[in-house]
Amino acid sequence: MAPKPLPDTRHVISINDLSKAEIETVFDVAQSYLTEYGDPNSHHRIARSSNLAPNFILASLFYEPSTRTRLSFESAMLRLGGTFITSADPATSSAAKGESLADSVRVIANYADVMVIRHPRDGAARLAAEFSPIPVINGGDGSHEHPTQTLCDLFTLKKKNKRLKNLKVAIAGDLKGSRTIHSFVYALARFGADIVPMPAQGMELPPHVDRRLREEFHCNFVPGDGSIDALYRTPEEPHQPALFAGPDFELSFNVGGPGGGDPIHRKKIDAVYVTRYQKERTVEKREGYPKIDAQFLKEPKYSHASVLHPLPRVDELDASLDSDNRAVYFEQAAYGVPVRMALISLLLGLQKGISLRKFEGGFEKPESLVYQQPLSVGIRCANANCIVHEPKESPYVRNKFHVVKNSGQDTCKLRCVYCETDIDRFFVASKKNKWFTDNTAALLHTKDQNIKDLLAFAEEADAISHGFHFRRHAAARGPQHESTKSHS
Ligand code: NCD
After folding, report:
1. Cβ 276 under 6 angstroms from ligand 1
2. What mean pLDDT do residues 374-397 have?
3. What is the pLDDT of residues 56-71, one digit of tens each?
4. How far, in Å, from the CA of 283 to the mean position of ligand 1?
């Protein structure tokens, strides 16, 4: 059993765990820790020290290589007047002896006040959070998400471009395997930027990320016009906050005038975000990989574009750009310290009058019903790299899914609670009545207290082999409304 979290424990696993207002708060605090010196090419971004956290300890638990994320978290904790303990190499920790993450986290939570974790499995950070009574921050889990990198990315865009709303941001490279990209595109969509995907061959955004952009963040996918291939266009939403909408920002270089015109016809790209080929996460051959260099940026549409990269770079970002004033990737890395100082101090409730300890809403969507798979029967997460498939964790983790309504339809999909991969097609069975159906409305309309009667199966044959009979119209409005029509 997972332990009880401390009162007000708040975890940051996905960028969508933070509301837009909370992200603004993080940036306000980060700005207060930042001293910048004039010369952009010298050591120029200093996180001002404070003495807010003298008795606090950060645990950094890294099961994968890291330079920036781990060291900037540790530096942030030291600059807050706290200290850190670290497990930077799984080969020298109990993981090498076969210890589960669930056990390590329960132990380490007694040694520290806040924990940052990086792991090769998608969803590992969410599992860690379930077992941690102290705040867990996701420092990158498989190819799922990397929310604090996104905070650094947005903070950089805010400082460079003054706003995010209506920006046109190109994302280039391995869009499939890059966790930084997944957190980043959700944030861009939520803040009203348009996204121009420029994937390497076979490395498009995963289908569940693409679908969330369209269905939950209401992006319109518009085919290109010759100057770009395609665009996720974020709709105008009057309630989007003023963040990044500074008065000094000018859209006049874009066709259509300030704020006007169809974004697809605005020729200028405001930022290019490139990532390396995530060779450790893919079997995809590296073909047609974009290279961002002086030649690439010569195109007039990039004349004002900031160039961002979460780093490390390999060969997709040419070193000759380092002295180009569009390059902002070293600033982006430097901002990691003040941004993480802000996040840690807010999660620990150390800032006067403001805190992230109380959950203020995260991503603005209704709470979904959670379907928990009973033991060995039924559906499993479709993502082979999900933490639920890690043999070491199997005694501690169950397949669990959010029941997510399909937009405009009376059907639902199952979204893994850990890695957020969706399953669209599945069967629903009633344990009590012994039927099963392909009508997923049965799950969608079930009441919380009735959900334990339902079982989800990936295949019809699985349901039949467990003694269920097919009924096409069964429970279209929940198990209570069972029809008598049976399958031939
Ligand atoms: C990224 C990561 O680990 O996902 N690095 C980082 O944290 N800045 C990007 C990468 O490894 O390519």
Report:
1. yes
2. 92
3. 999 999 999 999 999 9
4. 18
**Ligand 1, atom 6: closest residue by C-alpha:** 310
Higher pLDDT, 99 or 241: 99
* Residues forming beta bridges with residue 308, ordered by sequence position: 273
Residue 242: predicted pLDDT: 39
Q: Is the CB of 45 under 6 A from ligand 1?
A: no
Q: Judge whether residue 481 has pLDDT over 90.
A: no
Give mean pLDDT, residues 153-179: 94
Evaluate whether the domain defined by 15-146+334-347 bears CATH number 3.40.140.20.
no
- 69 in catalytic set: yes
Domains 15-146+334-347 and 148-330 agree in fold: yes
Would you call 405 a catalytic residue per the annotation?
no
| Domain locations in the chain as residue ranges | 15-146+334-347, 148-330, 370-481
- The CATH topology of domain 148-330 is Rossmann fold (3.40.50)
**Of 97, 239, 298, 485, which is the active-site residue?**
97
Flag the least confident range among 173-187, 255-269, 306-320, 465-479: 255-269
Distance 440 CA to ligand 1 centre (A): 38
- What's the whole-number mean pLDDT along residues 236-258? 39
Query: Would the pTM of this model clear 0.70, i.e. be above it?
Result: yes
Atom of ligand 1 nearest to the CA of 64: 3
- Of 10, 68, 159, 445, the active-site residue reads 68
What ligand 1 atom has the least distance to the C-alpha of 139? Answer: 7
CB 68 less than 6 A from any atom of ligand 1 = yes
The whole-angstrom separation of Cα 65 and Cα 68 is: 10
